[in-house]
């Protein structure tokens, strides 16, 4: 099924810090996703906790929130046919060691914590996450 969608992408602190933002954006553009809106920001730990609320019961939650708020990030609205699933494919598996060759996480990820990118995993979450950062 083909349909134009929007999804939220975040270039996480480890990748911004290593100046990988432009290389990562290239990966999206190569796969026909367009960047509709983008900004470089740093969020507070409280904002990170709100953003990752679905993970609040997980053992890694505190570390995750500290990490996402630890430095500048680039948040983007990506748009294109099946943008949500295409972006997830371009990103690769959560753990860079398990990610397929050619994916962002395989090429640039350092660890399961410092895995360089976030991408919405469903239409519902895409809408919520876009609202969170852009409204
Ligand atoms: P994603 O959609 O692939 O980013 O994965 P999730 O939404 O499940 O998790 C959000 C983020 O939490 C991931 O990108 C990881 O950085 C982190 N994370 C997920 N699972 C684990 C885990 O088992 N251990 C640790 N340390 N971090 C995790």
Describe the fold and architecture.
The chain has helices at 13-17, 21-30, 45-51, 61-68, 83-91, 104-108, 123-134; strands spanning 4-11, 34-41, 73-81, 117-119. The chain has 135 residues and is an alpha+beta fold. It has a single domain (4-42, 71-133), classed as 2-Layer Sandwich (Alpha-Beta Plaits). The N and C termini lie far apart (29 Å). Bound molecules: guanosine-5'-diphosphate (GDP). Guanosine-5'-diphosphate binds at residues 60, 64, 94, 112-113, 115, 118, 121. Guanosine-5'-diphosphate (GDP) binds at residues 60, 64, 94, 112-113, 115, 118, 121.
Helical/strand content category: alpha+beta
**Order of helix and strand elements from N to C terminus:** EHHEHHEHHEH
- Under CATH at level 1, the class stands as Alpha Beta
Calculate the mean pLDDT score and round it: 97
> What would you call the quaternary organization?
single chain
Radius of gyration: 14 Å
Strand arrangement across the biggest beta sheet: 2-3-1-4
How many helices? The count is: 7
Helix fraction, binned, reads 40-55%
Determine the CATH superfamily. Nucleoside diphosphate kinase-like domain
In this entry the ligands are: guanosine-5'-diphosphate
Unreliable residue runs: none
Terminal-residue CA separation:
29 Å
